Amino acid sequence: LLFDSSFDLVRTRYIDPVTKNQITVKRHIKGAEAWERELLSRLKNLLELLNSRPYTYELLVKSELFAMFALLTANCMSAAASTEKRQNHLRLEKLKAALKFIEENYTKKLSTLDISMHLNMSEGHFCRIFKDFVKKTPLEYLNCYRIHQAARLLEETDMKVLEVAMEVGFDNLSYFIETFKRHVGMTPSRYRCSRR
């Protein structure tokens, strides 16, 4: 429920540090402090929601989970996590620059080397950071972004499928169709028909 396929700053800043053990959390939360009592209360609410499953329970569960991560982050941040947070901030700035570069240049032929050189980083280091934060390789993200733009063009214009493919940076029609189908679940032509 908390993980999105695209880049998510909230997940990167608050959820990942807990799941990657960058925030020290007590092994046994007894409810001795006010924030612990609130956390346990939210956990109880969450379990009740999962049992009763009222309409919109997924939203309510997600809300409880976010509140629990907020409590953990605010009350369990260790000194090591603070250092990691500073390093993550620098990595995030690089990542934002990479995403901006991809969004401004997706129509061109791009490689991970092109992007890493733009950021003054080694290709290997850039790819590791990118995948760590975005959960996709840079080229997977690039193709995903291109397909998103292609879908928009298919909906909003009368351009031919080949023209759309070329417009968003694909130079091979069959690879474009295969990639589009993998991401969207149907061919570009069928997608266009389904949106009109």
Write the layout of secondary structure elements.
Layout: H1 9-19, H2 34-52, H3 57-76, H4 79-105, H5 112-118, H6 123-134, H7 138-156, H8 161-167, H9 173-184, H10 188-194
Observed structural traits:
flat; mainly alpha; 196 residues; single chain; 10 helices
Helix percent band: over 70%
Order of helices and strands: HHHHHHHHHH
The total of helices stands at: 10
Give the N-to-C terminal Cα separation: 31 Å
Major sheet summary line: none
Question: Can you describe this structure?
Answer:
This protein has ten helices and no strands. With 196 residues, it is mainly alpha-helical. It is flat, with a radius of gyration of 21 Å. The chain starts with 8 loop residues before the first helix and ends with a helix. 16% of the residues are buried.
Q: In summary, what is this structure?
A:
The protein is mainly α and 196 residues long. The protein has helices at 9-19, 34-52, 57-76, 79-105, 112-118, 123-134, 138-156, 161-167, 173-184, 188-194.
